[in-house]
Design goal:
Elements: E1 8-14, H1 18-32, E2 42-48, E3 76-77, H2 95-101, H3 117-136, E4 141-147, E5 149-156, E6 162-168, E7 173-178, E8 180-183, H4 194-203, E9 210-212, E10 230-234, H5 238-247, E11 254-257, E12 266-269, E13 276-280, H6 308-318, H7 323-346, H8 354-370, H9 375-389, H10 413-433, H11 438-458, H12 464-483, H13 488-499, E14 503-505, E15 511-514, E16 519-527, E17 534-539, E18 541-544, H14 558-566, E19 571-575, E20 581-587, E21 595-597, E22 603-609, E23 625-626, H15 636-650
Parallel strand pairs: 1-2, 1-8, 2-4, 8-22, 9-18, 10-13, 10-18, 13-14
Antiparallel strand pairs: 3-23, 5-6, 6-7, 11-12, 15-16, 16-17, 19-20, 21-22
Helix pairs in contact: 1-3, 1-15, 7-8, 7-11, 8-9, 10-13, 11-12
Bound molecules: flavin-adenine dinucleotide.
Length: about 650
């Protein structure tokens, strides 16, 4: 311990999930890389989280192993290991490196498999412990002290730094003084939207109706859903797949291989303890499965048109870029090119045989190289060309996948089930083809484009109005539904449960109501076979299969609410197309190292923000950093943490 005379600088790290660990690892790396005596004040680090530090809340090691990561083992890292330009600490290990050394703790998960979230939590715990041991061994570190508590308030002090109020699990309050604070708050509880609050109110005080609001799935007690209950589920993304695993395998049901091809590869044998599940979403279809490929972006995908050089030239000419006007026409050409190049390689017979297919591709690429700015014009020319080689074949309309049934009408609930099952079975076939699927390669190009656009958003190169109108408005929903789905076998499981008679889908644009007897859902696009009205499905349960929104204004935690109410923090703003400033989703912060700004615009020099609450200046703040990736791009969050570590040490 330091003696009383020694200068000690106190750093509070609030939140010790992946971002908190990342920050600590960057501190260690920087200390290990600095000259002796470079940091005269010793550092006392207080780590505050009500959950075990390392895994934190999301990656708790005691959660069901049926909850899986949505990124394969080779992808995530919570520290700089093979990331160019970032010096790793002696404790650094990516998840993939850790699981190879710890086959038992990692349940034998392989590089391309999707680990249980509890297993990723073990990695985070291990990494955290190693990093903290490394920090404690440093002469520049006075101590690392853990507090199993929630920070309920932050009061900046006139001398800089802040006074934090803490509350532990027993409700006991305490205080902590800090010269610097780093907020790594991650996923936060949020207020219900007015529509959700109405549904919650309908179920309040009743034993026969149950409402489950947005929540991290592992925080929900699924055992309270009775066997045979009818469960309406709003959302068909990853939370819905989590819920399905709990209510099938988690109830003792078994998936067996059928020996059939993709889309019909599994059969479900119920235990008899399952509820019946009715899934719904605005689009009316579940997220599509990920392609079976061995990289985060298929190896065969390169962006020829949405290139850095092209985008640099556009930036030089236009300043802030508009996604729809400047970037989408380029990305669309990459999407088209990958689709047809794969078709030519994998199924040339569709275009009249290998020679004709090659000629088609040469002509198409010639067109794309010269294409003007608008995607519709590119499509119209390419479609004409396609008709010469494959008369009657429809040209790829990737935007139509945002809402595949937008203009469709279904005569009955049963008709709709067939349509969704067919679409999802076909998606499984495509996913199984991996890089041989034209569709999955088009989606791969879209996904690669999203990753580049994320980096440009973080660099402030995308106009704010275009972020609202385009990135949030249509691009994100499109790419999420196509490229952020579960692994293939999770969709196989969903189809198997459907065939077992335990799962149906409600139609697009569903309308949910709380009736006297039950919750109900109907889609204006799906008729009832026995009446002139829409098909209606009822349920005793209504579950929102989604995370609480990542929006500081909606956060219900005392810390964020208090900071906003006291003016210690404010939501950032974006300028919309009318030039009006509208609230962004994250805190108002400076550029990197992302210091917090107060409501009056003053900068808190010693309060930093990392992770989800940076969503006003970044896009896609939830996802982990990618092992081995460039800190200017897919490992941006490591660079953020590194910059904060540098600023804290410069203190
Ligand atoms: C269910 C789920 C599955 C996911 N799966 C993947 C995946 O497969 N791949 C991927 O890349 N990303 C995934 N993500 C995204 C996820 O956001 C990141 O992987 C990661 O968890 C973000 O780390 P974080 O530290 O920023 O936030 P979190 O993991 O949310 O950690 C924040 C920590 O801060 C603590 N905290 C919050 N408020 C306070 C307070 N007031 N006082 C003290 N402590 C506080 C919390 O208890 C928590 O431990 C998933 C997210 C969720 C919710």
């Amino acid at each position: 311990m330091p003696d009383a005379q020694e200068a000690v600088r106190r750093l509070a790290v609030v939140g010790a999930g992946p971002r908190g660990v990342m920050l600590l690892e960057r501190l260690l790396a920087r200390l290990e890389g600095s000259a002796p005596g470079a940091h005269p004040a010793r550092l006392r680090i207080d780590v505050v989280d009500p959950y075990p530090p390392g895994p934190g809340r999301v990656w708790r090691t005691d959660q069901s192993e049926l909850y899986l990561m949505n990124t394969p083992a080779f992808f995530p890292t919570a520290c700089a290991a093979d990331n160019p330009g970032l010096r790793p600490s002696t404790a650094a290990q990516t998840f993939d490196q850790w699981r190879r050394v710890h086959p038992e703790a990692s349940l034998g998960v392989q590089r391309h498999q999707y680990p249980a979230r509890a297993v990723y939590g073990r990695y985070l715990r291990h990494l955290y412990q190693d990093v903290v041991a490394g920090l404690r061994a440093r002469p520049e570190v006075a101590d690392v002290v853990e507090h199993r508590a929630e920070v309920t308030a932050l009061h900046p002090t006139t001398a800089g730094g802040a006074r934090l109020e803490l509350r532990d699990a027993d409700g006991a309050a305490s205080e902590l003084a800090a010269d610097a604070v780093v907020l790594c708050l991650g996923h936060q509880p949020a207020e219900l939207s007015p529509g959700q609050a109405r549904m919650a109110a309908a179920a309040r005080g009743r034993d026969d109706l149950h409402y489950q609001g947005p929540q991290i799935p592992s925080d929900v007690d699924w055992d309270t859903v009775e066997p045979g209950a009818r469960v309406l589920v709003r959302g068909m993304g990853l939370n819905a797949f989590d819920l399905l695993a709990q209510l099938t395998q988690g109830r003792g049901g078994v998936y067996r291989r059928t020996g059939d091809g993709p889309g019909r590869a599994l059969a479900y044998e119920p235990s008899g303890r399952e509820p019946r599940v009715h899934l719904m979403s605005r689009r009316g279809v579940p997220y599509l499965p990920k392609a079976e490929v061995d990289a985060f972006v298929p190896r065969g995908v390169t962006l020829s048109y949405l290139s850095d050089a092209a985008v640099d030239a556009l930036s030089a000419r236009h300043g802030a870029l508009d996604l729809a006007e400047h970037l989408w026409p380029l990305l669309h050409r990459d999407v088209v090119r990958h689709y047809y190049a794969t078709l030519v390689r994998a199924q040339p017979e569709i275009l009249g045989g290998p020679v004709e297919a090659r000629r088609f591709l040469d002509e198409l690429v010639g067109q794309l190289e010269e294409a003007g700015r608008g995607a519709p014009v590119t499509s119209a020319h390419a479609e004409e060309l396609l008709q010469r080689y494959a008369p009657g074949r429809r040209f790829l309309d990737i935007l139509a996948y945002t809402a595949p049934f937008e203009d469709a009408v279904f005569a009955s609930h049963e008709d709709y089930q067939r349509a969704v099952a067919d679409l999802m079975e076909q998606a499984c076939v495509e996913a199984a083809l991996g890089e041989e699927s034209p569709f999955m390669m088009a989606v791969g190009a879209l996904h690669a484009g999203r990753l580049r656009i994320k980096a440009w958003v973080a660099e402030g190169r995308i106009a704010e109005d275009s972020r609202i109108r385009d990135v949030q408005g249509w691009f994100e929903p499109l790419v999420e539904g196509l490229a952020s789905g579960p692994p293939l076998w999770r969709v196989e499981q969903m189809l198997a449960v459907h065939r077992a008679g335990l799962l149906t889908w409600a139609g697009p644009a569903p309308v949910v109501d709380a009736e006297e007897r039950a919750f109900s859902v109907r889609s204006p696009q799906v008729g009832a076979a026995d009446s002139l009205g829409p098909a209606v499905v009822e349920g005793e349960w209504l579950v929102e299969a989604m995370m609480p929104p990542n929006r500081v204004q909606a956060a219900s935690s005392p810390l964020i609410r208090g900071m906003l109410d006291d003016g210690v923090a404010a939501a950032g703003t974006w300028e919309d197309e009318e030039g009006v400033r509208v609230p962004a989703t994250g805190f108002d912060v400076t550029g990197r190292p992302h210091r917090l700004r107060a409501a009056d615009g003053a900068v808190h020099e010693d309060v930093y923000v990392l992770g989800l609450q940076l969503s006003g200046v970044q896009w896609g703040t939830a996802i982990a950093a990618e092992a081995g990736a460039d800190p200017a791009g897919r490992a941006l969050f490591l660079a953020d943490a590194d910059a904060v570590a540098q600023a804290v040490l410069a203190g």
